[in-house]
What does this fold into?
Amino acid sequence: MDPVDVTAGETAASEIAVVASPAVRSRRRARRSLAGWVQGGGLSALLFALPMLVIFTAFSWYPIVRLVLLSFQETNLFDPPTWVGLENFRAVIEDPLFLTAVKNTAYFAALALVFGYPIPLVAAVLVSESTRFRGLYGALAYLPVVLPPVVGVLLWKYVFYEPSNIGLFNTALGWIGFGPYGWLQDPGTAMPALVVYSTWANAGTTVIIYLAALTSVDRTLYEAASVDGAGLWRKIWHITLPQIRGVMLVTLMLQIIGTAQVFLEPFLFTAGGPANSTLTVLLLIYQYAFGNSLGVGFGQAAALSLMLAVFLAVFSVAFIRLTRSWSTR
Amino acid sequence: MRSNFRAMLVVTLVAAFAVTAGSVSTAPAASQAKITVTVAALRPGSSEEAKKQFNDNVALFERRNKNVDIRPVEYAWNGATFAAQLAAGRLPTVFTVPFTDARTLGENRQLADVTAQIKRWPYFKKFQPSILAEATTSKGRIVGVPYAAYAQALHYNRQLFRQAGLNPNKPPTTWAQLQQYAKQISQRTGQAGYAQMGLNDNTAGWIATTVTYTFGGRVQTGRGTRAVARLNNPQTIQSLQMLRKMRWTDNSMGSTYDYTWPTINQAFAAGKIGMFINGSDIYTFLVQSTDINPSIYGIAPLPLAKHKSAGVLGGGSIAAVRPDTKGAKLEAAMRWIDFFYIRKLVEKAAAIRDAKILVANKQPVGVPSFPIFNRAQFVQANLWVKPYVNVPTAQMRPFLTGIFKQKLYPEPVASTQSVYHALDPVVQAVFTDREANIVELLNDANQVAQKAISEGK
It folds into this structure.
C-alpha cells in the first residue's frame, strides 16, 4: 500500500471524528467496522471455514471435551453419568497394571528408538546415494505402509512368528539347529517381536520424508567435500546429517509420540500377553473401556487417556524448546 | 464478490447437508406403519447354508407377523465389541449374551425389563428356576430369556486317537488318564495331545476355572460386591501344576498357547488338537464356521477328581432386548424371541418346523444341550426332533451317557468376566515360564479379582 494514501486517509478520519458526538462516533465505527469486515473478506473466510469448523467441532473438539468430562464421571452408557471427582484418576494410579503398562510402553519406545529410528535414515541415505532404480527402492521401502495393518499383522503372526517349526523364522533357525521358538508366546521375545513388525510396517513413511529432506541438501557441498578428499561416511556425517537435522528432530518427536500410543501391535498380536508383558498404556485404556461387556470402566479409560495426552503435550513442548536452538542452528 | 458469496453458500449448504444427511430419514411413508426389529443373526463368516436357514426363519416369522419387519444383522457376542456396541447405541434390538453377563448388565439397567412380557407366555412356569435366575436381577426383574444351556465338555479328535493307538470310544475318565493320552497323541501323531485356551481375553481364566471345578475348587464365594475372591484355592493351584507338567515335562500341548474361543475350535477342526475343553454345544459352530470332517469329532464329559464338590461348570445363552425398546416394538421383539429361540423347545409343530429348516440347509440337529425347561419337557422336545437328528450321535455317546451322572454348577456370579480376566495372566505365565511361581501369581490375581468384585466391575 502507498504510504502517502495512508496518511491522507488518517487525516480525513480524524477530521470526521472531531465534528461528530461520541455516541454517533461509536455507532458509525461499529457499522463501518462490520461492513469493512464483510467487504474485506471476513464473511467469505468465515463461510469457507464453516464446514471445517463444524466437522472439527463434531469429531475432534467435542469428543475431547466429552473425554475431559467423562474422566470425572461414572457411566453405565445409558443413564446420565454421575460426578465422581478424582476417583477415576485414583483408581488408575492405584491399579498395579498401570505401572506395568507404563514400563512396557517405555520399553517399546526405547526398543523402537534404538532399532527403529536409525533404519529409515540409513535406508533413505542408501536409496538417495544409489544412481539406478532409486524410484524402485523407494517404492519397495514404502510398500509395507500400503498393506492394511491387519493383513500385515496376520502375515507376520502366522507366517513369520508361527511358533511351530513351520514358521518362517523357525524354519530358517531349524536349518542351523535352533528352535522352534514361540516368538509371541515368550515374555522375553514378545515385545521385541512387536518392535520388529512395527519398524517393518512404519519405516516406509519416514524413508519418504527423509528422501524429500535429502533433495534439499545442496549438492555443491558434496562436490566441495569430494574435492577435499572426503569419503562417503565423512560426507554423510559432516554434510547430510547436519543439513537434515531439523527433519530428524521432528521425526524423532513424532516417533516418541507414536510409540507412546502403541496399540495396534499388542492388540492384534498378543492382546497384551503373555502374562501382561506387552500390555501398553493404550491397550490398558482399551481394557478399561471394553475389557468386559459392562462398559463401566469408561471413566477410568477417559482418565488415563487424559493423563497420557497431558504427558505427551508437556513432552512435546519441552522437546521443541530444548531442541529449538539445535534444529535451527 | 457476489459470485464468490454464491459459491461459498453452495459449499456451505453441501457441507451442511453432508453432515446432517445421516440423520435424515428417507423411509417411505408406507413402511412407517411397520415395526422394524433388528435381530442378532449368525456370527460373521457363517456358511451360506446357515444364512439361508436363518433367513427362512425370518421369512416365516414375517408371514405370520405382517406388521413386523425383521432385519438380521451379523452378531457374535464378544465382551469387547459388546461394550463398544452398547456405548455407540449400535446393538440390534434383540441380541444374545452369555449367562456370565446378563445379570450384571441387568443390574446396571443395560437390558430391557421383560418381566411383564415373559410372564404372559403360557409356558413361563415350565422354566427351570435355576436357569431363569441367570436372567433375573437382585430386585426380581427378568432382563432376558435363557434359550440354551451347556456343560463344559472334553472334545476330542477320534482320528488322532486311532493314530495314537487309543480307542476313540473310550475317552479319558480321569485327569491322569487324560495326561497319558495327551502324551501318547503328541508323541505318535506330532499334533498337540491337549490344548487349552490361553489368550488374555478372559478365555484363559474361564478354562482355568472350569478345570478348578473338576478338582472340586471354587474361585469365589458369596454374591454381589460382598463376594470373596478365592483364586488362590488349592484346587486352582493343583490344576495349574498339572498344566505346567503337561506343557513343560510331558511336552504334550503343541506349540500354540494363545488360543481363544474361535481359534481353538478352528485348530481342532483342522486336526491340530487331540483334546480340548469347550462348551458341549460347539458342534454347531464347527459345522457353520469350519470345514470339520464330522467323522473326527468326539465329545466326552470332563474327568472329575474324587472330591465332594467336584463338578462341571455350566453356562448358556440369553436372548435380551435393548433397554431403550418400549411398547409395540418390545412386544414384537419378544414375539421374535419366542418364535426363534423358545417355541421349538415347548411346541411340537415349532420343533419340527425348526428341525426341517435346519436339515434342509444342512445345519446340525441334535447337538448336545441341557434343559431350559423342566426335564420332562426336555425329553419330550428331543423326541419330537429325533427323526431329524443329523449329528453323529454315536460319536457323542460318551458325553450323552455320562454327563447326566455329573453335577452341573453355575459360573462364578460376581464380576465373572473380571475374575476370569484376573486369571488370564497366571495361565499365560504357566505356559511361558517353566519356573512361574503359581502361588504368588494367584495371590496377585486374587487381589485384582477382589478389587473388581468390590467395585462391581
Notes: Residues 327-346 of chain B form the longest helix (20 residues). Chain B has a mean pLDDT of 88. Chain B touches chain A through 55 residues (CB under 8 Å). The first strand of chain B starts at residue 35 and ends at 40.
